[in-house]
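User: Sequence for Lipoprotein below. Tokens please.
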Amino acid sequence: MNKTYTWKRAAIAVLVLVSVVACGKSRSVKIVASEVERSKTPAKLPADIEKLLKTKHNEADLRQAIVLLEQFSNENPQYQDVKVTLCRANYLMGDGHLWLKLTGDADTDAPVKAESIKFYDAAVSWCEAALAMNPKFRDKVVKDGLEVEKALDVLDVDDIDALYWRYASLGKWSRLSGFTTILANRSKFTAMVNRVRELEKTMGKEYFYSATLRYDATSNALSPTGDKKLADKLFEEAIKKHPNYFAVRVLYAESRLKGDETKFKSQLEYVLKGNAKSLPEIESDQIVEQRKAKKLLDEM
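Assistant: Structure tokens for Lipoprotein:
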């Protein structure tokens, strides 16, 4: 009798989980047939866009940069790097400028989160457009009708930026869309990050300040069933590898250290006292992370 009861409870749990996952919010993949050939050289952006991108830690400048970049990309569709830049610009709007406006009040935050979802969705779309510059990938998705995650094997090193930032953007979009959406997309996150790992091996080096290591840390930290001790270990390892990459310290503090005031303050104060120019290629992103660190400290 007990075995039967246990089996029934397990069966019900599985059915409930399947139902919950099925209720997750979905988004349409915007990849279409195209004869545009990917440029072998990066785009030379107009001076006004370059200037705005250097000051994208200012919200107004980033919003204007996105408008001008969209226009440039539509007129010059051969540049994969511009599409990735648009993906990351939209991501920064959601993860940076709009995140800084969150107050913790549901009514006040609702329109901010709604706008964030739109920016994350745009980020995913631009990265998908960048991936579609790979003709083998595009054919698998458009002609063969495969899901994006079933076509990742044909992506190459040139696609790693678009692939990683699609994962990052889809992850943020899913989290704001609700727990069921995260569950529904979890296998997609794993597939994309695993392909990034494979491309790292091809390159013979890690990608973007230990990106895959941060994924392992974050997934364990945020998942209800994640290994929290392992998450802490991996965060510490990522910080040791790249001590001046501020985002990992902010994420570590926010996701794991709120119950340890000393460690929480230590990580965030390091960010505040750090030099954003120590990583000049992402200086604006670093400045935004410093603002996020200050917000978290102010909210203690």
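The first helix runs from residue 2 to 22.
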